Amino acid sequence: MNGLRRYPREIQALLLASLINSTGSALMWPLTTMYVFGELGRSMQDAGLVILLQSLGGIAGQLVGGAMYHRIGVKNLLVGSLLVNALALFALPIVSAHWPLYMLAMLVTGFSNAMTLPAIQGFVGFRFSSRRGEIFNTIYVGNNIGVALGTALSGPLAEISFPLTFVLNGVTCLLFAGYFFVYLNRIDRQEGGLHVQTRTVKRESKALPLLVNTRVYLYMGLGALFLWLGNCIWNGGVSPSILSEGRPASHYSILWTMNGVLIFALQPLISWIKRSFAALPESQMTAGSLFYLSGYAIILLVPHYWAMVLAMFLATIGEMLFQPAMPAFISERTQADAPFYLGVSGGIAQAGRVIGPYIMGILYDRGGLEPVAWSAVVSAVLSCGFFVWNHRLQRCAADRKGHIRKA
Fold first, then answer.
1. Which pairs with CB-CB distance under 8 Å and at least 24 residues apart come from 292-296?
2. Most confident by average pLDDT, 31-35, 207-211, 351-355, 369-373
3. pLDDT-wise least confident of 27-31, 73-77, 333-337
C-alpha cells in the first residue's frame, strides 16, 4: 500500500476497516472442513454439506442485498447485515453440539456476509464515482492482504481453540459494523444525505424490468460463473494431486501464500497491462480469463509441481485483472441501479463456486488430475467466450449511442 497516502482520509479509513474485516473473515473459512471433520467428528460429506449451505446462503445474500439497497438504505443494510453476521458467528461455538442448529448458523453466516458485498460495492461506486475503478482495485488488494494475515493466524489460533476463531471473526465484524454506523451517520450530518442515487438517471424500482436488461449483467455473470468453476481446480485437483504424490501439505499452502504476495507485488505489472491494452473493465475481464486459461493449460500439459507454481502465477494475474473490473463495469454501466445488478451478477458468479467442488471431486475420483484440468480449461474457454461477447455488446451499444448523438 505504498500509494495509500494519495487518498483522502475518508478512503484510507475505509480501506483500513475493510482490511481488518477481511482478516477476521479469513480466520474461519480455511478451517471449516477441519472443524466439522476433526472437532465435531462428522463425515467429509457433512463438511461438504455445510460449505454447500454457506455458499447457497451467499448466493441468496447477494441477490437480496442488491435488491434491498435502495429500499432500506445503505446504512440499515450494511450495519444490519454485519450485526446479524456477528451474532451468527458468536452463536457457532454454542450451537456446535446441535448439528441442525450449526448448519442453520452457517447458512445465516453465508447469507448475512454476502448481503454486505453489493452494499459496499454500490456505495463505493456512488460515493467515489470519479475514481471508482482505482478504489475498487485498492480495496481488492487490501482485502487480500487481510486474507493472507487471517489465514496465517488461523492455524495457530485453531491450535489454541477453534471457538476462538469464531469469536474473533465476530469481533472484527462488529468493529466493521461500528465503523460504518459512525461513518455513514457523519456523512448524513455533514452533507444531508448519502448521495447514493444519481440525479441524471431515473432508477427503476421493480426487479423484473431490471432483469430484462440482460446486456449489462447476464453474459458477464456467466463468464464469472465459469471462471470460478474452473478455479475450483486448486482445491478439487491440485490439492489432492500434491498429497497423492507424497508431497507435504505445506507445498499446497505455499501456492496460496504466493498468490497473496503476488497480488501485492504485481500491481505495477497490472497497471502497465491496463494502460497498454486493457483500459476498459470489459477488456480487463477478457484478458483475465485468458491468463486463467493459460495457467490451467500448463497444469494439463505439464502436471508437475513447478508447473503448478507457474500456473498460480498466471492465474493470479488473471484474478487481479478480473476481480476489480466486475464491480467497476456494473457501477459505470448501471448508475443508480448498480446495487441490484451487483447482487444479481454476484449471485450468478457464486453459483460456479457452489457446483465447482462437486464436479471437480467427481472428476478427480474417476481419473485424477487430468480430467479436472480439462474441465478447468473448458470452463476458462467458456468464460472467455462470454466476456468477449459482453465486450462486443458494449461496443455495439456505444456505437448506437454515438450515431444517435450525431443524428
1. 292/227, 292/230, 292/231, 292/318, 292/319, 292/322, 292/380, 292/383, 293/377, 293/380, 293/381, 293/383, 293/384, 296/230, 296/233, 296/373, 296/376, 296/377, 296/380
2. 369-373
3. 27-31
Domain limits of the chain? 1-193, 206-407
Residue among 66, 159, 153 nearest 116 (CA): 66
Q: Which helix (H) or strand (E) holds 171?
A: helix 162-191
Instruction: Give the C-alpha separation, 103 to 106, whole Å.
Output: 5
CA 342/CA 334 separation, integer angstroms: 9
pLDDT tens by residue, 62-102: 888 888 888 888 888 889 999 999 999 999 989 988 899 99
Check if the beta carbon of residue 230 is closer than 8 Å to that of residue 315.
no
**Which residue has cell 448501471?**
334
| DSSP helix/strand/coil, 246 | coil
Say what angle helices 281-301 and 305-334 make with each other, to 10 degrees: 160
Question: What pTM did the predictor assign?
Answer: 0.78
Contact 401, 313 (CB under 8 A): no
Q: Is the pLDDT of residue 261 over 60?
A: yes
CA-to-CA distance for 95 and 211, rounded, in angstroms? Answer: 39
For 249, 299, 358, the CA distances from 361, given in Å and listed in that order, are 18, 17, 5
Per-residue cell: 308: 503448478
Instruction: Assess whether the region 1-193 and the region 206-407 belong to the same CATH fold.
Output: yes
Residues 6+ apart with CB under 8 A from 63: 343, 344, 347
CATH number of 206-407: 1.20.1250.20
Q: Does domain 1-193 have CATH number 3.40.710.10?
A: no
Task: State the cell numbers at 264.
Answer: 501485492
- From first CA to last CA, the distance across the chain in angstroms is 47
pLDDT exceeds cutoff 60 at 197: no
Distance in angstroms (rounded) separating the CA atoms of residues 7 and 299:
40
Q: DSSP letter for 7, please.
A: S
